[in-house]
Amino acid sequence: MKKFYITTPIYYINTEPSIGSACTTVAADVLARLHRQLGEEVFYLTGTDEHGEKVAETAEQAGLSPIEFCNQIAPKFEEAWKLLNISHDFFIRTTDPRHEKVVGEVLQKIYDVGDVYKDKYEGWYCIGCEEFKTDKELVEGHCPLHPPKKTVLKSEENWFFKLSKYIPQIIELIENPEKNYIFPESKRLEILAKLKAGVNDISISREKVKWGIPVPWDKEHTIYVWIDALINYYSATVFLENKADFWPADLHLLGKEILWFHTVVWQAMLMSANLPLPKKTYIHDFYTIDGQKMSKSLGNTIPPKEMVDLFGVDGSRYLIARSFPNNGDVDVDIVKFKEKYNADLANNLGNLVSRVCKLGIGLPIPNPSKSPFDKGDFTNLIDNLKFDEAISWVFDNFIDKSNNRLNEVAPLKLEANDPKRIEVLTECTQNLRQAAFYLQSVMPTISQKILDLLDGEIKPLESGLFPRIV
Ligand SMILES: [Zn+2]
User: Fold this and answer.
1) How far away, in angstroms, is 147 Cα from ligand 1 center?
2) Bond prior to 248 in cis (omega within 30° of 0)
Protein backbone atom coordinates (compact mmCIF):
# COMPACT_ATOMS: atom_id res chain seq x y z
CA MET A 1 0.00 0.00 0.00
CA LYS A 2 1.28 3.46 -0.88
CA LYS A 3 2.23 5.51 2.18
CA PHE A 4 1.69 9.21 2.74
CA TYR A 5 3.24 10.98 5.74
CA ILE A 6 2.21 14.59 6.29
CA THR A 7 3.11 16.96 9.14
CA THR A 8 2.13 20.38 10.44
CA PRO A 9 4.61 22.32 12.55
CA ILE A 10 4.26 21.51 16.21
CA TYR A 11 2.71 24.67 17.62
CA TYR A 12 4.56 26.64 20.23
CA ILE A 13 2.67 26.16 23.46
CA ASN A 14 3.13 29.76 24.52
CA THR A 15 0.14 30.78 22.41
CA GLU A 16 -3.33 29.31 22.14
CA PRO A 17 -4.85 27.87 18.96
CA SER A 18 -5.84 30.58 16.50
CA ILE A 19 -7.05 30.75 12.94
CA GLY A 20 -3.36 30.94 11.99
CA SER A 21 -2.52 27.50 13.35
CA ALA A 22 -5.96 26.26 12.27
CA CYS A 23 -5.11 27.24 8.70
CA THR A 24 -2.08 24.91 8.51
CA THR A 25 -3.87 22.17 10.42
CA VAL A 26 -7.00 22.22 8.23
CA ALA A 27 -4.85 22.33 5.07
CA ALA A 28 -2.90 19.25 6.19
CA ASP A 29 -6.16 17.55 7.12
CA VAL A 30 -7.59 18.07 3.62
CA LEU A 31 -4.49 16.41 2.16
CA ALA A 32 -4.54 13.59 4.70
CA ARG A 33 -8.21 12.85 4.03
CA LEU A 34 -7.77 13.04 0.26
CA HIS A 35 -4.86 10.58 0.34
CA ARG A 36 -6.90 8.19 2.50
CA GLN A 37 -9.72 8.52 -0.03
CA LEU A 38 -7.22 7.57 -2.74
CA GLY A 39 -6.53 4.35 -0.86
CA GLU A 40 -3.16 5.28 0.63
CA GLU A 41 -1.95 4.53 4.12
CA VAL A 42 -1.69 7.93 5.77
CA PHE A 43 0.18 9.16 8.82
CA TYR A 44 -0.83 12.70 9.80
CA LEU A 45 1.22 14.18 12.64
CA THR A 46 0.65 17.39 14.58
CA GLY A 47 1.43 18.46 18.15
CA THR A 48 2.97 21.01 20.48
CA ASP A 49 6.46 22.42 20.98
CA GLU A 50 6.89 22.76 24.74
CA HIS A 51 10.46 23.60 25.77
CA GLY A 52 12.44 26.84 25.89
CA GLU A 53 12.93 30.01 27.80
CA LYS A 54 9.69 31.65 26.69
CA VAL A 55 7.58 28.77 28.02
CA ALA A 56 9.44 28.79 31.34
CA GLU A 57 8.90 32.55 31.60
CA THR A 58 5.18 32.38 30.80
CA ALA A 59 4.69 29.48 33.21
CA GLU A 60 6.36 31.46 35.97
CA GLN A 61 4.12 34.45 35.33
CA ALA A 62 1.13 32.12 35.66
CA GLY A 63 2.50 30.73 38.94
CA LEU A 64 3.01 27.27 37.46
CA SER A 65 5.91 24.94 36.81
CA PRO A 66 6.71 24.65 33.09
CA ILE A 67 5.24 21.16 32.81
CA GLU A 68 2.09 22.16 34.68
CA PHE A 69 1.70 25.02 32.25
CA CYS A 70 2.23 22.75 29.23
CA ASN A 71 -0.25 20.24 30.61
CA GLN A 72 -2.83 23.02 30.71
CA ILE A 73 -2.27 24.37 27.20
CA ALA A 74 -1.60 21.21 25.13
CA PRO A 75 -5.20 19.96 25.60
CA LYS A 76 -6.47 23.28 24.23
CA PHE A 77 -4.82 22.45 20.91
CA GLU A 78 -6.23 18.95 20.95
CA GLU A 79 -9.70 20.34 21.72
CA ALA A 80 -9.47 22.92 18.94
CA TRP A 81 -8.49 20.25 16.40
CA LYS A 82 -11.29 17.99 17.60
CA LEU A 83 -13.69 20.89 17.12
CA LEU A 84 -12.51 21.28 13.51
CA ASN A 85 -12.79 17.52 12.90
CA ILE A 86 -9.06 17.16 12.30
CA SER A 87 -8.13 13.55 11.58
CA HIS A 88 -4.50 13.50 12.78
CA ASP A 89 -3.17 10.08 13.66
CA PHE A 90 -0.98 11.25 16.51
CA PHE A 91 -0.53 14.37 18.63
CA ILE A 92 3.11 14.68 19.66
CA ARG A 93 4.32 16.70 22.65
CA THR A 94 8.05 17.46 22.89
CA THR A 95 7.93 16.81 26.65
CA ASP A 96 7.09 13.16 25.88
CA PRO A 97 10.04 11.19 27.31
CA ARG A 98 10.03 8.98 24.19
CA HIS A 99 10.62 12.07 22.02
CA GLU A 100 13.30 13.35 24.40
CA LYS A 101 15.14 10.05 24.11
CA VAL A 102 15.22 10.18 20.29
CA VAL A 103 16.39 13.82 20.37
CA GLY A 104 19.36 12.77 22.51
CA GLU A 105 20.19 9.94 20.11
CA VAL A 106 20.08 12.17 17.01
CA LEU A 107 22.25 14.81 18.69
CA GLN A 108 24.74 12.17 19.77
CA LYS A 109 25.07 10.99 16.15
CA ILE A 110 25.76 14.55 15.01
CA TYR A 111 28.35 14.89 17.78
CA ASP A 112 29.98 11.55 16.96
CA VAL A 113 30.64 12.48 13.33
CA GLY A 114 32.43 15.62 14.51
CA ASP A 115 29.85 18.20 13.44
CA VAL A 116 29.62 19.88 16.86
CA TYR A 117 32.08 22.22 18.58
CA LYS A 118 32.06 24.56 21.59
CA ASP A 119 32.38 28.30 21.12
CA LYS A 120 31.50 31.56 22.74
CA TYR A 121 28.56 33.35 21.29
CA GLU A 122 27.56 36.93 21.73
CA GLY A 123 24.70 38.57 19.94
CA TRP A 124 21.21 39.97 19.92
CA TYR A 125 18.70 37.40 21.00
CA CYS A 126 14.92 37.67 20.66
CA ILE A 127 13.20 35.85 23.53
CA GLY A 128 9.97 36.02 21.49
CA CYS A 129 11.45 34.03 18.60
CA GLU A 130 13.87 32.07 20.82
CA GLU A 131 16.67 32.81 18.41
CA PHE A 132 19.76 34.94 17.86
CA LYS A 133 19.19 37.67 15.29
CA THR A 134 21.69 39.01 12.80
CA ASP A 135 22.05 42.78 12.41
CA LYS A 136 20.24 42.50 9.09
CA GLU A 137 17.20 40.97 10.73
CA LEU A 138 16.80 43.71 13.34
CA VAL A 139 14.65 46.74 12.67
CA GLU A 140 15.53 49.80 14.77
CA GLY A 141 17.67 47.54 16.93
CA HIS A 142 15.03 44.96 17.77
CA CYS A 143 13.14 41.99 16.35
CA PRO A 144 10.34 43.34 14.13
CA LEU A 145 8.02 40.52 15.19
CA HIS A 146 8.17 41.24 18.92
CA PRO A 147 8.19 44.18 21.37
CA PRO A 148 11.65 45.86 21.73
CA LYS A 149 12.15 44.58 25.29
CA LYS A 150 12.24 41.01 23.97
CA THR A 151 15.53 41.64 22.14
CA VAL A 152 18.43 41.29 24.56
CA LEU A 153 22.22 41.12 24.24
CA LYS A 154 23.34 37.64 25.18
CA SER A 155 26.74 36.16 25.64
CA GLU A 156 27.33 32.54 26.48
CA GLU A 157 29.27 29.40 25.77
CA ASN A 158 27.32 27.25 23.34
CA TRP A 159 27.67 24.08 21.39
CA PHE A 160 27.68 24.85 17.68
CA PHE A 161 26.57 22.74 14.75
CA LYS A 162 28.59 22.92 11.52
CA LEU A 163 25.66 24.12 9.46
CA SER A 164 27.92 25.82 6.90
CA LYS A 165 29.48 22.47 5.99
CA TYR A 166 26.17 21.27 4.48
CA ILE A 167 25.17 24.41 2.60
CA PRO A 168 26.62 23.36 -0.81
CA GLN A 169 24.65 20.09 -0.65
CA ILE A 170 21.48 21.89 0.36
CA ILE A 171 21.85 24.41 -2.46
CA GLU A 172 22.27 21.56 -4.92
CA LEU A 173 19.13 19.90 -3.60
CA ILE A 174 17.02 23.04 -3.75
CA GLU A 175 18.35 24.07 -7.15
CA ASN A 176 17.27 20.81 -8.74
CA PRO A 177 13.89 21.79 -10.22
CA GLU A 178 12.90 18.16 -10.78
CA LYS A 179 12.89 17.46 -7.09
CA ASN A 180 10.38 20.24 -6.47
CA TYR A 181 11.88 20.07 -3.02
CA ILE A 182 10.51 23.38 -1.75
CA PHE A 183 7.36 24.86 -3.13
CA PRO A 184 5.77 27.16 -4.17
CA GLU A 185 8.45 28.61 -6.43
CA SER A 186 8.56 32.05 -4.75
CA LYS A 187 9.64 30.43 -1.48
CA ARG A 188 12.20 28.22 -3.22
CA LEU A 189 13.83 31.29 -4.75
CA GLU A 190 13.71 33.17 -1.45
CA ILE A 191 15.57 30.45 0.38
CA LEU A 192 18.11 30.01 -2.41
CA ALA A 193 18.95 33.71 -2.31
CA LYS A 194 19.42 33.56 1.44
CA LEU A 195 21.63 30.46 1.17
CA LYS A 196 23.83 32.07 -1.45
CA ALA A 197 24.29 35.18 0.67
CA GLY A 198 26.34 33.11 3.13
CA VAL A 199 25.44 31.02 6.16
CA ASN A 200 27.01 30.83 9.61
CA ASP A 201 27.11 27.83 11.91
CA ILE A 202 24.31 27.67 14.42
CA SER A 203 24.32 27.37 18.17
CA ILE A 204 22.37 24.30 19.28
CA SER A 205 22.59 24.46 23.06
CA ARG A 206 21.74 26.88 25.83
CA GLU A 207 23.79 27.24 28.99
CA LYS A 208 21.28 29.13 31.08
CA VAL A 209 17.98 27.71 29.92
CA LYS A 210 16.93 24.94 32.27
CA TRP A 211 13.61 24.04 30.60
CA GLY A 212 14.87 21.78 27.86
CA ILE A 213 16.39 18.41 27.01
CA PRO A 214 19.96 18.02 28.40
CA VAL A 215 22.78 17.86 25.84
CA PRO A 216 23.81 14.17 25.98
CA TRP A 217 27.57 14.83 26.35
CA ASP A 218 27.31 17.98 28.48
CA LYS A 219 24.48 17.90 31.01
CA GLU A 220 25.09 21.52 32.03
CA HIS A 221 23.57 22.59 28.71
CA THR A 222 20.11 22.07 27.29
CA ILE A 223 19.36 21.53 23.61
CA TYR A 224 18.14 24.64 21.83
CA VAL A 225 14.35 24.41 21.58
CA TRP A 226 14.31 24.66 17.78
CA ILE A 227 16.65 21.69 17.36
CA ASP A 228 14.58 19.64 19.79
CA ALA A 229 11.34 20.62 18.02
CA LEU A 230 12.42 19.77 14.46
CA ILE A 231 13.30 16.23 15.48
CA ASN A 232 9.62 15.54 16.32
CA TYR A 233 8.89 14.69 12.69
CA TYR A 234 11.39 11.87 12.86
CA SER A 235 11.03 10.86 16.51
CA ALA A 236 7.33 9.97 16.17
CA THR A 237 8.23 7.40 13.51
CA VAL A 238 10.83 5.91 15.85
CA PHE A 239 8.86 5.58 19.07
CA LEU A 240 5.48 4.74 17.50
CA GLU A 241 6.13 1.18 16.48
CA ASN A 242 3.42 0.95 13.82
CA LYS A 243 4.76 4.11 12.11
CA ALA A 244 8.31 2.82 11.80
CA ASP A 245 8.42 2.82 8.00
CA PHE A 246 6.87 6.27 7.50
CA TRP A 247 10.11 8.26 7.63
CA PRO A 248 10.99 10.23 5.48
CA ALA A 249 7.92 12.48 5.48
CA ASP A 250 6.22 13.03 2.15
CA LEU A 251 5.25 16.59 3.00
CA HIS A 252 6.13 19.11 5.69
CA LEU A 253 3.55 21.86 5.65
CA LEU A 254 4.42 25.15 7.35
CA GLY A 255 4.09 28.92 7.46
CA LYS A 256 6.75 31.23 6.08
CA GLU A 257 8.02 32.48 9.47
CA ILE A 258 9.71 29.12 10.06
CA LEU A 259 11.00 28.55 6.54
CA TRP A 260 14.71 28.75 7.40
CA PHE A 261 14.75 26.17 10.15
CA HIS A 262 12.68 23.69 8.15
CA THR A 263 14.41 23.97 4.80
CA VAL A 264 18.01 24.52 5.87
CA VAL A 265 18.77 23.63 9.50
CA TRP A 266 16.58 20.52 9.49
CA GLN A 267 18.06 19.23 6.21
CA ALA A 268 21.61 19.75 7.48
CA MET A 269 20.88 17.96 10.75
CA LEU A 270 19.47 14.98 8.87
CA MET A 271 22.44 14.92 6.51
CA SER A 272 24.82 14.97 9.46
CA ALA A 273 22.93 12.20 11.28
CA ASN A 274 22.84 10.22 8.03
CA LEU A 275 19.05 10.03 7.93
CA PRO A 276 16.83 10.27 4.82
CA LEU A 277 15.52 13.76 3.95
CA PRO A 278 11.84 14.70 3.77
CA LYS A 279 10.53 14.54 0.20
CA LYS A 280 8.84 17.93 -0.02
CA THR A 281 8.27 21.07 2.00
CA TYR A 282 5.42 23.47 1.32
CA ILE A 283 5.48 27.00 2.71
CA HIS A 284 2.34 29.10 2.95
CA ASP A 285 1.85 32.80 3.59
CA PHE A 286 -0.17 34.35 6.42
CA TYR A 287 -3.65 35.39 7.21
CA THR A 288 -3.81 39.06 8.11
CA ILE A 289 -6.58 41.11 9.66
CA ASP A 290 -6.84 44.65 8.31
CA GLY A 291 -3.46 44.08 6.72
CA GLN A 292 -1.79 43.27 10.04
CA LYS A 293 -0.30 39.97 11.09
CA MET A 294 -2.46 38.27 13.67
CA SER A 295 -0.83 38.12 17.06
CA LYS A 296 -1.53 37.53 20.68
CA SER A 297 -0.20 40.97 21.61
CA LEU A 298 -2.47 42.74 19.12
CA GLY A 299 -5.40 40.59 20.20
CA ASN A 300 -6.65 40.45 16.60
CA THR A 301 -6.86 36.71 16.17
CA ILE A 302 -9.93 34.56 15.52
CA PRO A 303 -10.08 31.50 17.81
CA PRO A 304 -11.25 28.31 16.04
CA LYS A 305 -14.19 28.02 18.45
CA GLU A 306 -15.53 31.41 17.39
CA MET A 307 -15.48 30.28 13.76
CA VAL A 308 -17.11 26.93 14.47
CA ASP A 309 -19.84 28.58 16.57
CA LEU A 310 -20.68 30.83 13.63
CA PHE A 311 -20.15 28.69 10.54
CA GLY A 312 -20.33 25.14 11.82
CA VAL A 313 -17.48 22.65 11.53
CA ASP A 314 -17.62 22.06 7.79
CA GLY A 315 -18.43 25.71 7.05
CA SER A 316 -15.28 26.75 8.95
CA ARG A 317 -13.14 24.16 7.17
CA TYR A 318 -14.51 25.32 3.84
CA LEU A 319 -13.78 29.00 4.56
CA ILE A 320 -10.26 28.24 5.74
CA ALA A 321 -9.50 26.09 2.70
CA ARG A 322 -11.00 28.64 0.30
CA SER A 323 -8.91 31.47 1.75
CA PHE A 324 -5.72 29.44 2.26
CA PRO A 325 -2.79 31.86 1.70
CA ASN A 326 -0.85 30.11 -1.07
CA ASN A 327 0.14 33.16 -3.07
CA GLY A 328 0.77 36.10 -0.74
CA ASP A 329 -0.92 37.06 2.50
CA VAL A 330 -4.72 36.88 2.60
CA ASP A 331 -6.73 39.38 4.58
CA VAL A 332 -9.60 37.70 6.40
CA ASP A 333 -12.30 38.77 8.82
CA ILE A 334 -15.67 37.56 10.02
CA VAL A 335 -17.61 39.88 7.69
CA LYS A 336 -15.86 38.53 4.59
CA PHE A 337 -16.26 34.98 5.84
CA LYS A 338 -20.02 35.55 6.30
CA GLU A 339 -20.38 36.82 2.74
CA LYS A 340 -18.48 33.86 1.33
CA TYR A 341 -20.39 31.37 3.46
CA ASN A 342 -23.77 32.76 2.42
CA ALA A 343 -22.87 33.02 -1.26
CA ASP A 344 -21.22 29.60 -1.71
CA LEU A 345 -22.75 27.38 0.92
CA ALA A 346 -26.16 28.75 1.96
CA ASN A 347 -27.29 30.15 -1.42
CA ASN A 348 -25.47 27.89 -3.84
CA LEU A 349 -24.67 24.39 -2.58
CA GLY A 350 -27.21 24.36 0.27
CA ASN A 351 -29.96 25.69 -1.94
CA LEU A 352 -29.23 23.12 -4.64
CA VAL A 353 -29.49 20.24 -2.17
CA SER A 354 -32.78 21.51 -0.77
CA ARG A 355 -34.27 22.08 -4.25
CA VAL A 356 -33.29 18.61 -5.44
CA CYS A 357 -34.52 16.90 -2.27
CA LYS A 358 -37.83 18.82 -2.28
CA LEU A 359 -38.64 18.31 -5.95
CA GLY A 360 -37.36 14.79 -6.25
CA ILE A 361 -38.51 13.00 -3.06
CA GLY A 362 -38.68 9.28 -3.72
CA LEU A 363 -37.11 9.52 -7.17
CA PRO A 364 -34.95 6.43 -7.72
CA ILE A 365 -31.32 7.11 -8.61
CA PRO A 366 -30.10 4.77 -11.35
CA ASN A 367 -26.60 3.29 -11.01
CA PRO A 368 -25.14 5.81 -8.65
CA SER A 369 -21.41 5.96 -9.12
CA LYS A 370 -19.74 4.11 -6.26
CA SER A 371 -16.20 5.04 -7.16
CA PRO A 372 -15.33 8.31 -5.45
CA PHE A 373 -13.78 10.13 -8.40
CA ASP A 374 -11.05 10.15 -10.98
CA LYS A 375 -7.58 11.21 -9.99
CA GLY A 376 -6.93 14.29 -12.05
CA ASP A 377 -7.35 18.05 -11.93
CA PHE A 378 -8.86 18.11 -8.46
CA THR A 379 -6.26 15.84 -6.85
CA ASN A 380 -3.41 17.73 -8.48
CA LEU A 381 -4.72 21.07 -7.30
CA ILE A 382 -5.13 19.83 -3.72
CA ASP A 383 -1.65 18.26 -3.76
CA ASN A 384 -0.32 21.67 -4.76
CA LEU A 385 -2.29 23.33 -1.96
CA LYS A 386 -4.43 25.21 -4.47
CA PHE A 387 -7.62 24.67 -2.51
CA ASP A 388 -9.45 27.68 -3.89
CA GLU A 389 -8.95 26.51 -7.48
CA ALA A 390 -9.80 22.91 -6.61
CA ILE A 391 -13.07 23.90 -4.95
CA SER A 392 -13.92 26.30 -7.79
CA TRP A 393 -13.44 23.42 -10.19
CA VAL A 394 -16.03 21.38 -8.27
CA PHE A 395 -18.47 24.29 -8.18
CA ASP A 396 -18.06 25.05 -11.90
CA ASN A 397 -18.41 21.47 -13.05
CA PHE A 398 -21.13 20.15 -10.80
CA ILE A 399 -22.86 22.68 -8.56
CA ASP A 400 -23.25 25.86 -10.62
CA LYS A 401 -24.04 23.74 -13.64
CA SER A 402 -26.89 22.04 -11.79
CA ASN A 403 -28.34 25.26 -10.41
CA ASN A 404 -28.31 26.68 -13.93
CA ARG A 405 -30.07 23.61 -15.33
CA LEU A 406 -32.76 23.83 -12.65
CA ASN A 407 -33.34 27.50 -13.47
CA GLU A 408 -33.52 26.68 -17.16
CA VAL A 409 -35.90 23.72 -16.96
CA ALA A 410 -37.98 24.96 -13.97
CA PRO A 411 -39.13 21.45 -12.91
CA LEU A 412 -41.54 22.93 -10.36
CA LYS A 413 -43.79 24.00 -13.26
CA LEU A 414 -43.78 20.51 -14.79
CA GLU A 415 -45.96 17.53 -13.82
CA ALA A 416 -44.32 15.05 -11.42
CA ASN A 417 -44.08 12.36 -14.12
CA ASP A 418 -42.91 14.66 -16.92
CA PRO A 419 -39.80 13.00 -18.41
CA LYS A 420 -38.08 16.41 -18.62
CA ARG A 421 -38.55 16.91 -14.88
CA ILE A 422 -37.24 13.43 -14.07
CA GLU A 423 -34.30 13.90 -16.41
CA VAL A 424 -33.14 17.20 -14.93
CA LEU A 425 -33.51 15.99 -11.34
CA THR A 426 -31.58 12.82 -12.11
CA GLU A 427 -28.83 14.84 -13.75
CA CYS A 428 -28.59 17.21 -10.77
CA THR A 429 -28.53 14.30 -8.37
CA GLN A 430 -25.60 12.69 -10.16
CA ASN A 431 -23.77 16.03 -10.20
CA LEU A 432 -24.40 16.56 -6.50
CA ARG A 433 -23.15 13.09 -5.66
CA GLN A 434 -20.02 13.74 -7.66
CA ALA A 435 -19.49 17.11 -5.94
CA ALA A 436 -19.96 15.48 -2.54
CA PHE A 437 -17.30 12.85 -3.36
CA TYR A 438 -14.85 15.57 -4.27
CA LEU A 439 -15.64 17.77 -1.29
CA GLN A 440 -15.31 14.98 1.28
CA SER A 441 -11.80 15.97 2.26
CA VAL A 442 -12.84 19.58 2.83
CA MET A 443 -16.33 19.06 4.33
CA PRO A 444 -16.42 15.43 5.51
CA THR A 445 -19.67 15.47 7.50
CA ILE A 446 -21.87 17.45 5.13
CA SER A 447 -20.56 15.62 2.07
CA GLN A 448 -21.51 12.32 3.68
CA LYS A 449 -24.92 13.73 4.53
CA ILE A 450 -25.45 14.68 0.87
CA LEU A 451 -24.39 11.20 -0.24
CA ASP A 452 -26.82 9.63 2.25
CA LEU A 453 -29.70 11.85 1.08
CA LEU A 454 -29.04 10.81 -2.51
CA ASP A 455 -28.41 7.12 -1.99
CA GLY A 456 -30.78 4.72 -3.81
CA GLU A 457 -33.57 7.28 -3.96
CA ILE A 458 -33.88 10.96 -3.10
CA LYS A 459 -34.76 11.38 0.56
CA PRO A 460 -36.43 14.36 2.21
CA LEU A 461 -34.17 16.99 3.75
CA GLU A 462 -35.30 17.76 7.27
CA SER A 463 -33.42 20.99 7.80
CA GLY A 464 -31.13 23.12 5.64
CA LEU A 465 -27.49 22.04 5.48
CA PHE A 466 -26.18 25.60 5.69
CA PRO A 467 -28.47 28.03 7.53
CA ARG A 468 -28.04 31.58 6.19
CA ILE A 469 -26.08 33.81 8.52
CA VAL A 470 -27.17 37.43 8.92
ZN1 LIG B 1 11.16 37.93 17.70
Assistant:
1) 8
2) yes
